[in-house]
């Protein structure tokens, strides 16, 4: 047990949580777009497709029960940059339209505790079609205290008991980032581990992220009999820890469980939770566990105690789905807190297909390896993996140079598959800071495949998105596209722009002669 001099705080009440909150309030959506807070692992097309399949299965199960007259509310906690919500909606609407069967209507509600983020989503161009369709709304939500949802678009308030369908909750990288308790089990007793900050006063004027970097922490321990008391709502799981663990530190999600309880009151029919995080659902993981590590990325994250969440909710009648195999980077779970949870067969089958057999964590592990092998891959490996990942834009950016090298020897079928993939990618692309780079790369690849109409569209978009791409290479490629498409006036205009910037550009000079000849 560790202890040194400094300010002592109950773990869940330490200033680090205030600094965490202040960081997100200060940075807004830039926390994700500036590559500070990780977002790819929980926001890529593959995980979005898995979630959409589980949600679709849930809608099918409700329809099978005859519950189609009331809409289903899908609530995402801490929706981050908005990429996951957009991709889930894109995939879910695809499934709904493809199936063409009777299902309850649905509305996806993105939430955050920062108003700037809510406004950013509301005004984001990728969100507008879904807002117009009435399937997307937004709300401020403080996970530590709020009991209702004030919807921005609909102008409605969802109060406890208002929902007739089960609420569907999505919580990615959520439970590891809100206040938790830190407990210690030793000699069959439960202790609370207080956090001691030995440098809190010295860095009072620093930015939140700098305070986190500079903090020096240690722990002090005190008996916590209240957790074992008859009146404690967590008595059963704490008793299990007292019986089974020794010399173990446990992050206990009291605030997370309280949040779920409050959200559960919004519906008279219960809820389903889909969640992904760092954190294990097995008791063995917490045996002899050391004090937690603060993982810093502008803000910080810890580890989610999915065992406590699973055990507590199952004791309340829920049914939890977690993988039988061990996770590596991200643990995806689904918990049904509804009447007769086993009757939700389509939901459970979707989890079996999309997570248990091969899921987002498996894909991410493969992608980390694949990213290192790209220069040795052929199109016959690149194309299937790109399909497996849902035509991910970031993967195309990574592979673009290798694909360009391979195109001269590509078959017509491979090039047609490339074309289909790039259009699929673009149709479901959530506009972020890489839009200009992505449209430029896409246009170049189409140009290399002699698909000039497609190339012209994307190259022109790249210039609109990124003024830095307004250079002679892009202009010349556009001139060639227009020339091949017999758009002579546009070809002439682009060629003259090239020569105005670079008078000695030989290819442009030759093209100008052909156009004026």
Task: Give your account of this protein's structure.
It is a single chain. The chain is built from 20 helices and 16 strands. The chain has 517 residues and is α/β, with parallel strands linked by helices. The strands form four sheets. It has a seven-stranded mixed β-sheet. Strands 1, 8, 9, 10 and 11 form a five-stranded antiparallel β-sheet that branches. Strand 13 and strand 14 form a beta hairpin. Helix 3 packs across helix 4, helix 17 runs antiparallel to helix 18 (472-484) and helix 18 packs parallel to helix 20. The model has no long low-confidence stretch (mean pLDDT 91).
Relevant terms:
TPR repeat; single chain; 20 helices; SAM-dependent_MTases_sf; alpha/beta; 517 residues
Can you give the mean pLDDT? 91
Shape: globular
* Largest β-sheet summary: 7 strands, mixed
Distance between the termini: 86 Å
What's the short version?
By secondary structure, the protein is α/β, with parallel strands linked by helices.
């Amino acid at each position: 047990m560790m202890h040194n001099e400094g300010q002592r705080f109950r773990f869940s009440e330490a200033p680090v949580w205030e600094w965490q909150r202040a960081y997100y309030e200060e940075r807004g959506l830039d926390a994700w777009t500036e590559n500070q807070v990780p977002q790819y692992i929980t926001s890529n097309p593959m995980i979005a497709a898995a979630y959409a399949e589980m949600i679709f299965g849930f809608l099918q199960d409700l329809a099978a029960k005859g519950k189609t007259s009331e809409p289903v509310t899908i609530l995402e906690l801490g929706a981050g940059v908005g990429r996951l919500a957009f991709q889930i909606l894109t995939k879910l609407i695809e499934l709904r339209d493809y199936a063409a069967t009777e299902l309850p209507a649905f509305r996806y509600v993105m939430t955050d505790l920062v108003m700037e983020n809510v406004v950013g989503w509301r005004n984001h161009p990728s969100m507008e079609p879904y807002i117009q369709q009435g399937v997307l709304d937004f709300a401020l939500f403080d996970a530590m205290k709020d009991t209702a949802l004030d919807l921005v678009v609909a102008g409605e308030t969802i109060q406890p008991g208002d929902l007739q369908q089960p609420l569907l909750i999505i919580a990615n990288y959520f439970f590891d980032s809100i206040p938790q308790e830190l407990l210690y089990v030793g000699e069959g007793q439960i202790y609370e581990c207080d956090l001691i900050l030995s440098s809190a006063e010295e860095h009072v004027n620093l930015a939140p992220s700098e305070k986190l970097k500079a903090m020096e922490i240690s722990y002090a321990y005190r008996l916590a009999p209240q957790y074992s008391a008859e009146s404690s709502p967590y008595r059963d799981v704490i008793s299990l820890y007292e019986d089974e663990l020794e010399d173990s530190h446990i992050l206990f999600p009291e605030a997370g469980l309280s949040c779920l309880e409050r959200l559960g009151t919004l519906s008279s029919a219960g809820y389903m939770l889909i969640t992904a995080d760092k954190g294990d659902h097995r008791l063995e993981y917490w045996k002899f566990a050391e004090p937690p590590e603060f993982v810093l990325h502008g803000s910080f994250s810890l580890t989610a105690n999915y065992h406590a969440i699973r055990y507590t909710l199952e004791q309340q009648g829920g049914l939890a789905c977690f993988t039988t195999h061990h996770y590596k980077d991200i643990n995806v779970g689904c918990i049904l807190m509804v009447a007769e949870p086993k009757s939700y067969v389509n939901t459970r089958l979707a989890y079996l297909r999309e997570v248990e057999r091969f899921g987002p964590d498996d894909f991410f592990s493969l992608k980390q390896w694949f990213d290192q092998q790209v220069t040795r891959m052929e199109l016959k490996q690149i194309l299937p993996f790109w399909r497996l990942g849902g035509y991910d834009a970031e993967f195309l950016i990574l592979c673009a140079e290798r694909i360009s090298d391979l195109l001269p020897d590509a078959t017509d079928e491979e090039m047609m598959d490339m074309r289909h993939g790039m259009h699929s990618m673009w149709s479901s692309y959530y506009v972020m800071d890489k839009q200009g780079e992505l449209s430029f790369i896409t246009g170049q690849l189409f140009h290399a495949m002699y698909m000039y109409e497609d190339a012209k569209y994307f190259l022109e978009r790249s210039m609109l998105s990124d003024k830095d791409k307004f250079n002679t290479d892009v202009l010349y490629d556009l001139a060639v596209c227009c020339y091949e498409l017999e758009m002579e006036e546009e070809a002439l205009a682009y060629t003259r722009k090239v020569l105005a910037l670079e008078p000695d550009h030989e290819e442009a000079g030759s093209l100008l002669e052909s156009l004026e000849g």
